[in-house]
Structures are given as structure tokens and as C-alpha cells.
Design brief:
Layout (H helix, E strand, L loop, with lengths): L1 E3 H6 L4 E8 L14 E14 L4 E15 L6 E15 L10 E2 L4 E3 L1 H10 L9
Parallel strand pairs: 5-6
Antiparallel strand pairs: 1-7, 2-3, 3-4, 4-5
Length: about 130
């Protein structure tokens, strides 16, 4: 889920809608004990460019399934989730106290933000029925 600044500027009033499915490869979860994988990850939302502040505001919803280890048997448990979130991307070098994500090479990449949001929602433990 990447957008180039030139593409964003060409959108009507710097606003755009997105609706995408993401896949996270199994290798991403080899060193994580609290989650075994993700599937059916769907991300939908809107972005709007503020040309005066050189920032992109993105509001989005994520839903899908976390594959978590059962706290008793360690068997896989499909755990449905929904997350609403937002992010602010800066097309400049931000100050340390600014809560924005610095954009590299004029390309916004929402995928790492989505992954981080999901990881923050992983429950402490689940038990298979």
C-alpha cells in the first residue's frame, strides 16, 4: 500500500480512497511467539493531503483474522479482529516531539503502519473452544 506524492497531488483536492487486501508472508512470524500469522487482511480508508503543512492524513479500518497459539494446546486459533486507526505522514524532516511518520523518497507506505496496528491488538492469550 504505497502512494507516490506526485500521484496524491493529482487526485481531486489531494483526497483519495483505498480498499485493498494485504498478505503478510509466514516468514514475518517465525520469531514472534504471540502470533502465528495473519489472513484475509482487508484495509479500507481515505487519505487527504494538506499542502500547506506538507502532511498526509490517513484514516483507515483493518479487519481480518489473526492466527494465534492456544494458551493450553498451542494449536492455531483463528481470532477475528477489527481496528480503526489513523496516521499522519510528513513530507519533511519532523521534530522529535512530532507524532508523524517521516516519508522517505516521497513515497508513503501504509503497510508497516497496518502491521504495527495489528500487533498492538494481539490479545495476551486465547483458548481454543
Amino acid at each position: 500500500m504505497k502512494w507516490n506524492l506526485q500521484w496524491i497531488i493529482k487526485q481531486k483536492d489531494g483526497r483519495f480512497h483505498f480498499d485493498e487486501t494485504l498478505n503478510f508472508p509466514p516468514e514475518m512470524f517465525h520469531n514472534l511467539s504471540q502470533i502465528n500469522g495473519l489472513k484475509d487482511i482487508h484495509v479500507e480508508g481515505e487519505g487527504r493531503l494538506d499542502t500547506r503543512n506538507h502532511q498526509l492524513y490517513v484514516d483507515f479500518q483493518i479487519h481480518g483474522l489473526m492466527i494465534l497459539p492456544c494458551a493450553i494446546s498451542l494449536e492455531d486459533v483463528d481470532y477475528p479482529f477489527e481496528i480503526e486507526s489513523s496516521a499522519i505522514f510528513a513530507f519533511y524532516k519532523p521534530q522529535e516531539d512530532e507524532e508523524v511518520i517521516e516519508v522517505k523518497r516521497n513515497t508513503v507506505d501504509l503497510t508497516p503502519v497496518v502491521f504495527q496496528e495489528i500487533m498492538m491488538e494481539v490479545p495476551m492469550r486465547v483458548v481454543k473452544e
